[in-house]
Specification:
Radius of gyration: 17 Å
Helix content: 40-55%
Number of domains: 1
CATH superfamily: 5'-nuclease
Oligomer: single chain
CATH class: Alpha Beta
Number of strands: 5
Strand content: 5-15%
Distance between the termini: 48 Å
């Protein structure tokens, strides 16, 4: 085996990160310029450090974007960065219902609960979101961890792009 072959063989696997819809959407969101800048820089300079994951739920939410040009741009972004597409399973739906039943995510936000469940059931180590109301907040994170442990899932690291390398481009 050549030296290059050995280095490729022993190269550590990339950590997996799940991007909820708010992340690729923020790339084109001019209403929040600092968040947009952090997101753009993160994709350009940090994303390659991770194995990026989205879900069919993410795609469905993107499809609801009324601005055709923006919708197509977001889809092109996830294609450019080779985001792995995860299918929603019954196990994920069941876990998302537990997040709502036990107060981790409000019952009025089933998609938010499902994003977390998709990442958790898929064994993804991290979830990035710009949703500070229902996902990236200390109380939901604590409750999500409790529910995951009780249901024999690993805790998942949840945060905005700032904690996954984006802080060097700005802080909200």
């Amino acid at each position: 085996m050549t030296k290059q072959g050995i280095e490729e063989y022993i190269k550590p696997m990339k950590e997996k990160i799940y991007l909820d819809t708010s992340v690729p959407s923020a790339y084109y969101d001019t209403t929040k310029p600092l968040r947009q800048l952090i997101t753009q820089k993160w994709f350009e300079k940090e994303a390659s450090r991770y194995a990026l994951n989205i879900s069919t739920l993410t795609v469905a939410e993107i499809d609801e974007t009324s601005d055709e040009r923006r919708r197509q741009s977001i889809k092109a972004l996830i294609k450019k960065y080779k985001c792995r597409l995860l299918e929603v399973s019954d196990e994920m739906l069941s876990l998302s219902k537990k997040y709502m039943k036990y107060g981790a995510i409000p019952k009025s936000e089933p998609e938010d609960a499902l994003h977390v469940a998709i990442a958790t059931v898929s064994g993804i180590e991290m979830l990035a979101s710009w949703n500070f109301s229902h996902i990236v907040s200390i109380n939901p994170i604590r409750k999500i961890h409790e529910i995951n442990i009780k249901n024999k899932y690993y805790p998942i690291q949840i945060g905005s792009l700032e904690i996954f390398g984006g802080a060097k481009y700005g802080n909200l």
